[in-house]
Predict the 3D structure of the following.
Amino acid sequence: MKSNIWVRFVVAAFVLVLISLFQSANIWAGVRPNLTLTLLLSLSFFFSSWLTYAVLVLFSGLWLRFTLIPDRSLIVCLTLPLILFFINRYLPWRPVINNAFSIALGTLLFYAITDIHFFGFDVTAVFFELVYNVILGTVFFLVFGKFFRYEETTRLTI
């Protein structure tokens, strides 16, 4: 049964709103996972239309922080999922492994671009956030996969 793209979009937007409410919470050992980035990267496997996915990413940016001049972290948080959306189409592994790799790469690139010095100051925090994001992203992927198929996303559409 093929799910309607708009149902998928509305469900994803609703989950993004819920997840963003917990974005600033200290969850475990002082680690603040980037829940929005993690969820966006997991959701990229469930959209074959890059345009629909881009609208979802922009919606999340407007919901997270609506400002006239966005800061670097917001720009990176909105740009990385779009870039990784296309890279994900060429990863050779099973979708759940591709998802974990994409989240790990996205987390590392996020800190490398926004604040490279964070790697030097607290490597253990980066490591724990990386592990935490991959675990949460895998859970997001598996839960969302129970409702929507990800096999449809092997080709790109507008």
In short: The chain has a mean pLDDT of 83. DSSP finds seven helices and no strands in the chain.
